[in-house]
Amino acid sequence: MTEPAFLVLTALADQPRHGYGIVQEVERLSGGRTLLKIGSLYGVLDRLTGDELVALDREEVWQGRLRRYYRLTESGARALEKEAARLAENAEHARGRLRARYAEGTA
Amino acid sequence: MSLLEKRYRHVLRLLPASYRAERQEEMVNTFLEGAGDLTDADNPRPRWSEILSVAALSVRARLGGAGTGPRSFAWGQAVRLVALLGLAFHAMMSWMVFWRFLARYGLFGPSAAPQPALPAPESADRLWDIAQGFTALLWVAAFAALTRGCPRAAKPLALLAVAAASSDLLKLWSLDTRTAVTVMTLNGVLYAVPVLALFAGFHRDAPAIRRPPRVAVLPVAAGVLLSGLLTLAGTWSQQPPISLATWSWIWPWLDLPGLASLALLLAGAASIGVHLLVPARRSPVPAVALAILAVPVMLGRLVRLELGVADPVSRVMTAVGIAQIAALLLCALTLAVLGIRTMPPAPSPGAGPSSC
């Protein structure tokens, strides 16, 4: 799973969001490192909806313009959980190795 | 409608109509929400990064991977096949260049044609010559990376291969500008199409296919076989009595565009045969891919044509070249018609991207 896809799934984990809402949330979650362009956002959304990890939740008209809200599906939540566990395990391995390195005084 | 909205809608015209019909309003809203409170007085324009992201999305939507619409997927597969076949051909030809390089240094087999003298040992020219000899393997490496499911490695390797193949042009330019222009145009048309197809077709949504290792070495095997055949042909052509009249019909098939024409005509005939005789195996993918590849090969042959020659041998060679172009044109048109006819229908504008 790519980082943008992971961040989009994470952005949708707590509530459905529309396009710009996802862009803002991804920026916040990544500490400003990932600024999704609109073409990239919809490329990711196409892929995630194609894999049924994300689904259309509802449509709203806001200031005369269309807003589509997307939500995380059950399989999306499972995929996100699995990926988060994998990343956490990798991070834990890295932290363990670093602790050992510092304990041996080789820093 | 604000000026920025009008300009952004103009950018979105890069996307396929069916995609726009489904996504345009939503994308415009997302873009304008992020643009802030700009007014027409600010003369606002979409940033280049936004335009590039829409262009990249357009390529992915048109040359789709698995999970996209059948038409987009078929176009994607055709372009990916263009890259695969183009790289295979260049890998085969560059293996022959490598073979000749080894033969020049007396490391492997005899050389049929007279070779330029080797640069002085331990000189910078010698080192450069050896380095250049090994760059021929870049095409082989690019093809191997692609077939083993690593298009991200294949892309820089293919670019390096093009750069390496063009590195001698500067020297040639100073010696013989006309030949340099011919070689540059020939390289340009023959290299550009497969390399562009590699970059456009193998995007991040393209299906990752890892083929067996034997596929990766196929161009090397074909290159060895072809090298052997060309060496034999070279030896025969120099054996007395030398029949220039006979060889003038054969030589135009043995240079770079000639070999490409021969390969394409054989593959095109096979594809047309399958299409006409085995309806169950009809597919737009090989037909469209071969039709696309015929264009640079025709241009390549056109560049090498020597019109206005007087001697009978050259006139025959020119006539054979023109016949090649005519045959390629006929083959490409037939393949294009068959390919377009068997292409899955375009999604109706209301259908939108299949993944939604």
Automatic annotation (TrEMBL), chain A:
<protein>
    <submittedName>
        <fullName>PadR family transcriptional regulator</fullName>
    </submittedName>
</protein>
<dbReference type="InterPro" id="IPR052509">
    <property type="entry name" value="Metal_resp_DNA-bind_regulator"/>
</dbReference>
<dbReference type="Pfam" id="PF03551">
    <property type="entry name" value="PadR"/>
</dbReference>
<dbReference type="InterPro" id="IPR036388">
    <property type="entry name" value="WH-like_DNA-bd_sf"/>
</dbReference>
<feature type="domain" description="Transcription regulator PadR N-terminal">
    <location>
        <begin position="8"/>
        <end position="82"/>
    </location>
</feature>
<dbReference type="InterPro" id="IPR036390">
    <property type="entry name" value="WH_DNA-bd_sf"/>
</dbReference>
<dbReference type="InterPro" id="IPR005149">
    <property type="entry name" value="Tscrpt_reg_PadR_N"/>
</dbReference>
From TrEMBL, chain B:
<feature type="transmembrane region" description="Helical">
    <location>
        <begin position="316"/>
        <end position="338"/>
    </location>
</feature>
<keyword id="KW-1133">Transmembrane helix</keyword>
<keyword id="KW-0472">Membrane</keyword>
<feature type="transmembrane region" description="Helical">
    <location>
        <begin position="180"/>
        <end position="203"/>
    </location>
</feature>
<keyword id="KW-0812">Transmembrane</keyword>
<feature type="transmembrane region" description="Helical">
    <location>
        <begin position="81"/>
        <end position="102"/>
    </location>
</feature>
<protein>
    <submittedName>
        <fullName>Uncharacterized protein</fullName>
    </submittedName>
</protein>
<feature type="transmembrane region" description="Helical">
    <location>
        <begin position="285"/>
        <end position="304"/>
    </location>
</feature>
<feature type="transmembrane region" description="Helical">
    <location>
        <begin position="215"/>
        <end position="236"/>
    </location>
</feature>
<feature type="transmembrane region" description="Helical">
    <location>
        <begin position="256"/>
        <end position="278"/>
    </location>
</feature>
